Amino acid sequence: MSMGQVREAERPSIPEGTHQLIQDKYLVPTNEIMRLYRKVDEWIEDRSPGGIIFGRQRRGKTQAIKYIEKKLTLRYGDELPIFVIPAKHKFTANEEVFYEWLLLWVGHAFPYAGKKNHKFDRLAKFLLEKGEKSKYKQIVMFMDEAQALLEQHYKWLIDLYNYLNAFQIKLIILLVGQPELKLTKSSFVTQGMNHIVGRFMINEHELFGAKTVTDFQVCLKGYDTIEYPEGSGWSYTRYYYPEAYAEGKRLEHCANDLFEAFALVRQERGFGGKMEVGMQDLTTTIKYALAKYGAESKKKNHWIDLATWVECVKKAGYVDSEVSFNVSKLE
What we know:
Elements: H1 3-10, H2 20-23, H3 31-45, E1 50-54, H4 61-76, E2 82-85, H5 95-106, H6 116-133, E3 138-143, H7 151-166, E4 170-177, H8 180-190, H9 194-200, E5 203-206, H10 213-225, H11 236-240, H12 242-246, H13 255-269, H14 279-293, H15 306-315, H16 318-330
Parallel strand pairs: 1-4, 1-5, 2-3, 3-4
GO molecular function, one term: ATP hydrolysis activity
Domain ORC1/DEAH AAA+ ATPase: 51-181
Protein name: AAA domain-containing protein
């Protein structure tokens, strides 16, 4: 039996289509996500009332929230209640529905019971209980796709903020969304709505995509280190390219080729300006290189060369993403 066959036999037995990579059940740290994590942690330490986090589409905002929630939980444990309120298809100016949505995602057992005032009372007391049990007397609430919030929603959040503040519990609301969120803040400032800006928008942070080879390298390194099954010793890179991995090859070392691949595709399509690759486009490209060209593929390449990276960039949707963005700038 050859060494290649031995390595193949050692691979974990994972049913087709169930690997974490295929199901997108993984979180890869990036320079941008870590920069945002440090900023959010600073806001929490300063007991700031809130802030806005914004960036273009496909910049990995939702993934960043998940990663930061995990990091904060590891740091603070049960001493800091953290809630993530996901995007809603369409927020309407309906107070009762708004409270139901919040009750549902903070984990209350009865989000739909009672009338409007009962729902607010239940939500406020639920959060109060969580806050009073917290060592830090703080609650962190991320609200995704917050550019969809209407002025009325902010007024209802103020009611919730004021209720908890009366009991000396600090509610920190972090509004995450697209660049329109920055425009909303500017509009509120112009209109003199300091009661909203001062509570929820006093801080701000813009999330960017990968701009440098180092940014690419940090992201790629995650696939060299994250293991599945956990503790098995089989990183994503090793699982999909076992023989190349045994020879010492790592995705981290592909940073220059991957950067060049994106640059070549941009040049071919005539995209102007400086390159900034959204995290969704970057991770989808890497996923494509592993799943479509690695050990699970019929093509089964030994390793990933520049031409393969270029093909992965094209097939992963980056071109469509950039075309869409450039069209939106012209509208």
